Structure formats: structure tokens, C-alpha cells
Amino acid sequence: LSVASVEDPVVMSKIRQNLREKHARHIADLRAYYDSEIQSLKQQLESSHRTASSEDLKKINQSLADRDWCNLYVLNRCDQLDAALNEASARIKALENKNNLLEKQVADWRERFYTISNTSKVLQERLEEMRTAHKEKDNTISRLKSRLRELEEAFQKAYKLSDNKNTRLQEENKMFQNLLGEYESLGKEHERVKDTLNTTENKLLDANTEISDLKRTILKLEAQLKQVEHENTLKLRH
């Protein structure tokens, strides 16, 4: 048998079934053989009981006693082999159940690991998107600051040039106030984005930590699985 055939549960079940059937047939044949031998000796004893001498009767009785002892030894040995076979079958069944349980646990941990890995990838993508958006908003804030400085310079220049341009100054002041409000709004939004970014980074760290724990657990379960498979193979060979 190849190694793959030995590891196949279906093949091993068929092998055990064939061994049980052969063992049962062997025991039945032995019992039938010794029953026929005993019956034949009894018939010989009955046929020669009247004509045989005392010495012949002693030899026949001794032969019957020896055969009865041999028959009893064979029956006891058959019972021992049957008990050993049942014990080995129970041990193999227990190892198979343990093996199946470990395989199921490994599959569950792998599925959970894949799920967390996918979640980590999604969080990483969102983190990159938020970083890009944060960079764009920083650029917008820089442009607004530059525009604000230009307006301040224009306002100061206009104030120095003429005090009679109140209307224009009011308009520029209104524009300045609007830009200042927009700048403050963008500053608040920038802070919110930074808080969200920090929260996402913390979640990503937690996910990476859980992934590392899951990897260690999977490696431990796979080591246990290999150990059980090795014990199962040794039992099967025995």
C-alpha cells in the first residue's frame, strides 16, 4: 500500500473491515476443525470401547486430553487476538476523531485568519485614502494661507493708498472674513481627519497583532496535527 492509501480514511476502514472478516473466518475455521477432530475422536472411542484394551484406552484418553488442551489454548489465543484487535480498532478510531477535530480547528482558524487579513487590507486601503485626502487638504490650507497673506498685503496697500475707498475696503474685508471662516472650517475638518486617521491606525495595529496571534495558533495546531498523524501512522503500522 502507498502512503496516500494508508492515510486515506476510506481505505483504512476497508482494510480494518477485511481484517475483521478474515479474523472471524479464521476463528470459525479453527473451531470447526477442532470440533470435527473431537467428534471423530469420540466416534473412534465409542467404536473401539468394547474391543480396545486398557492400555489403548489410556492412550486414547491421553490423546483426547492433549487435543482438548490444545483446543482450549487455541480458543484462548483467538480470544486474546480478538480483544487486541478491538482495542487497536478503538485506539485508531479515537486517533481518527482527534485528527478530524484538529483538522476542523485548523480550518476554522484559517478562515478567521483570512477574514482578518481581508479586513486589514480594507483598513489599509482606507488609511491610504485618508492620508491622500489629508495631504490634499493640507495643500488646500497652504493655498488659502497664501491667498490670505496676499489679501492682507492688498488690504494694507489699499489702506495706505486711499482712505476714501471704504466700499472697496468693506468688500475686501468681507472677502477676508469669508476666507478666514473657510480657513477655520478647514482647520476643524483637518483636526477631525487627523483624529480619524489616528483611530484607523490604531485599528490597523490591533488587526496586525491579532493576525500574528492567529499565525502562532495555526502553527501550533498544525504541529499538533502532524504529531497526531504520526501517532496514527505508527498505530496503523503496528
UniProtKB/TrEMBL annotation:
<protein>
    <submittedName>
        <fullName>MPP9 phase</fullName>
    </submittedName>
</protein>
<dbReference type="InterPro" id="IPR026636">
    <property type="entry name" value="MPHOSPH9"/>
</dbReference>
<feature type="coiled-coil region">
    <location>
        <begin position="78"/>
        <end position="231"/>
    </location>
</feature>
<keyword id="KW-0175">Coiled coil</keyword>
<dbReference type="GO" id="GO:0005814">
    <property type="term" value="C:centriole"/>
</dbReference>
